[in-house]
Structure formats: C-alpha cells, structure tokens
Specification:
The strands form 2 sheets. Strands 1, 2, 3, 4, 5 and 6 form a 6-stranded antiparallel β-sheet that branches. Strands 7-8-9-10-12-11 form a 6-stranded antiparallel β-sheet. Helix 2 (18-38) packs parallel to helix 3 (99-112). A hairpin with a 7-residue loop joins strand 9 and strand 10. Helix content is 35%, strand content 21%. The protein is built from 10 helices and 12 strands. It has helices spanning 4-7, 18-38, 99-112, 143-164, 205-211, 242-245, 261-265, 270-289, 293-296, 300-305, and strands at 51-52, 56-58, 62-64, 67-74, 79-84, 89-93, 175-177, 182-192, 214-222, 230-236, 250-251, 256-260.
Length: 306
Amino acid sequence: MTDPITRSWPRLKTAGWTETRDTVHMWTQIVGKVRMAYAPAVNHWWHCTLYPTARGLSTSAIPYGEGMFDVEFDFVAHRLHLRTSDGRAREVALEPKPVADFYGETMAALASLGLEPQIHAVPNEVESAIPFAEDQTHCSYDGVAVQLFWRQLLQAQRVLGQFRSEFVGKASPVHFFWGAMDLAHTRFSGRLAPDHPGGAPNCPPWVMQEGYSHELASFGFWPGGGEEGAFYSYAYPEPPGYAERTGAYYDKNLQECVLPYEKVAEAADPDAVLLEFLRSTYAAAADLAGWDRPALDLPTAVRSSA
C-alpha cells in the first residue's frame, strides 16, 4: 500500500495560507542567513540554502570552531531545533507569533549555545523588507498548512532528485532558496554567462550576478504561480527560439515555463507529467544553446539500468 505521507501529492490552495506562507518565508530567511554567516562560501550561493528533511527543513551541519551545529524546522512537532555537535540543544516553538518574536527567540537560543551570528537582519527578494526585529506584521502560523507545504516539497524533491541523476555535468543539489522560497535544481553547460541585470527586490545586482555567472537551465517548485503553487523552468541566458519550443508551458509575463502544481497532482501519473515538463524544457534550453549533451547527459541505457 502506498504510504500517503511519503507518496501522496498533497493539495493546498495558495490563497488559503498566504499569511502563514509569508510568515514562514521570513522565518526561513532568518535561519538561512544564520547558515550563511558561518558556512564556507560556495559558488552560486549554494552555502546559504536549506534542505527538506523527514521532519521539515534543515540547514544541514554548519562548521563552528572545531565543531558543528545545525538548525532544523520540525514541521511535525512544530519546533525549531538548534543543536550542537557537543550534545547541547535548544528549541523555539513554531506557533502564531510575529517575526520579531521569532527572530529574538532564535537569536537568544543561538547565543545560549555560544553562537552569535552577524547577519543582515533585513529580508531579501521581497518588496516589503521590514527588518526582522521590527516585523509585527507577519505573525500567522497554520500548522496544518505548513505540513502540507512541506509534503509538497518532499514530492518535488523526490522527482527533481530523479531528474538530477540524469545529468553528469555540473549541477546543483536539490535545495531550498529562502530568498524566493523555492525548491530548486540547476544544470550548467560549463560556459560563462553575460552579467545578470539584477532586478530582484531588495537584492543587490552582484548577488544575482554571482548566482547566474555561468550559462544554466534551472528548475524548481514554489508556492505561487498557480492555485496550489507551480513548477518552473527557465534558461539563462534564454536562447533564441526557447519560448516557441516550450510554448505549451511558456509564460510570456514571467518569461519562464510554468506547470501548475494542481495539474501534476491531478494526473494519473504525477511523476511522469512532471518529468516530461523537466526533460522537455531542459532539452529545449540545451539544444537551442548548443550544449554538449553527449558529454553532459547520462545515457538513456545507463539511466534505465540504474
């Protein structure tokens, strides 16, 4: 029998949890910036991301002194766990509270463990960048909705992970970017890209230029773009003909390909529908830009026998 927790595609109307989504978004930015304060820098900001786990979202292990610590959102027990490699631990309750309270409690918990990260305590990639310590606006927490979103992330991670295994060139992990609140995986051709023009709100152009320093095709899921969130795909720089070849998915306003989550969840074979979207939009980006696909793609015969 299929396990509904690990295999079902949960349904969550975006409009029904917007206030909670926006609050949790700010919480993930705080925790992500803590990781960024201590983790060694990795190209394209890969050292800043979070990762879905069997309980929620985690920083993974972060070096500090001669030890390690991690921070994990536990969306089952509704706790933020802060743990050090010497066995000490603290918790912060995940419950309805202003971002300012969550920020203060999290920083105090870290300080009690001997951690005092220096972070830019203002959100990025959002229009209204209220400093965390002053944010009384975002204060909602619907635990059921958050669990459903986390389970959406697990399904997206599972299929994106399969898709990632089909590529042997430079590729990112499947990871959660707290800036835009999306789960993402990116493939690279190996060639440099033109400087990105920037444009993300409250985010300096040089941040985007580092993220997009090399030619890429990117794929992911975020809780927007459809009634229940959406999968996306885009190429940078976008090669001529990409919009036409991906016409079944291409959104001219967003200038990227979009597959509403509900179309995947309602399909007889959700995995197959999502993989077709990922594979076809990747092929369009790679073919039109002249990627060396024989060197970068795992041969189908090898993929089938794995």
